[in-house]
Design brief:
Number of helices: 10
Shape: globular
Strand content: 15-25%
CATH class: Alpha Beta
CATH topology: TIM Barrel
Number of domains: 1
CATH architecture: Alpha-Beta Barrel
Largest sheet: 8 strands, parallel, barrel
């Protein structure tokens, strides 16, 4: 069984498109919790194009499931996490102008800043996960900088079209999964996972949690948020 953390960024995107407070991000998060998800994820970007600091505070004070704050290791994000003290902080590399996260960390390039951020977060009891490409050679590095977990970037697997492409990308995930376990890591996964490609991840026993936003919120437009969460929980083996 894989735990499901629902990313509510897209709810905030819709709200911000019109202004005001409709749809209400906190209400959406609570609906997901009531439907049975094990966690809520937010990614407060520097430009505040979706989740804003006020959303983070509101959600943190209202939910009784795991809270995951993700983002780059910039000072204001780290300080926000240190103040909120979520169960988990997922550090994600961010490129200026990107629409969404599209690659994992280059550990060698960012080693110093990652070690500093991870140490500060862990001293406050916050579990740290690093967003990483499906590259077996990078897993020992992720462990060496002190991360508790890695979140496997699953877009290449999720976007594969042919049976051969899907098999190749899943094999890459499996190799990386095995390398992470060998390095003593626990695994999360996320990016473009949906009801079609999510169930197969159950074959990778080291994956404990998936973070899903876009696909789940999009599906909820057709079936409702409560049912969407329940259907994704089923795809996680629950």
């Amino acid at each position: 069984m894989i735990n499901l953390s629902v990313n509510v960024n897209k709810v905030a995107t819709l709200r911000n498109a019109r202004g005001g407070d409709n749809p209400n991000v906190l209400q959406a998060a609570l609906t997901c919790v009531e439907a049975g998800c094990q966690g809520i994820t937010v990614h407060p970007r520097k430009d505040q194009r979706h989740i804003r600091p006020g959303d983070v505070y509101e959600i943190a004070s209202a939910i009784d499931v795991e809270f995951n704050i993700e983002g780059d290791a910039r000072p204001d994000l780290i300080n926000l996490a240190l103040e909120i003290r979520p169960a988990q902080c997922t550090l994600v590399p961010v490129e200026e102008g990107e629409v969404t996260s599209n690659h994992g960390w280059d550990i060698q390039k960012h080693e110093k800043s990652l070690v500093t951020a991870i140490d500060r977060l862990q001293k406050e009891g916050i579990r740290v996960s690093l967003f990483m490409d499906a590259d077996p050679a990078q897993m020992a590095g992720a462990a060496a900088v002190g991360a508790d977990r890695v979140e496997l970037y699953t877009e290449p697997y999720a976007s594969a079209k042919t049976e051969r492409e899907i098999a190749n990308q899943f094999a890459r995930l499996r190799e990386t999964h095995d390398a992470a376990l060998d390095a003593g890591m626990v695994l999360n996964a996320g990016h473009d996972l949906d009801l079609n490609n999510l169930p197969r991840l159950q074959e990778l026993s080291g994956i404990k949690e998936v973070s899903i936003g876009h696909a789940l919120i999009s599906y909820a437009l057709y079936v409702g948020l409560n049912k969407a969460v329940k259907d994704f929980l089923k795809a996680c083996g629950q």
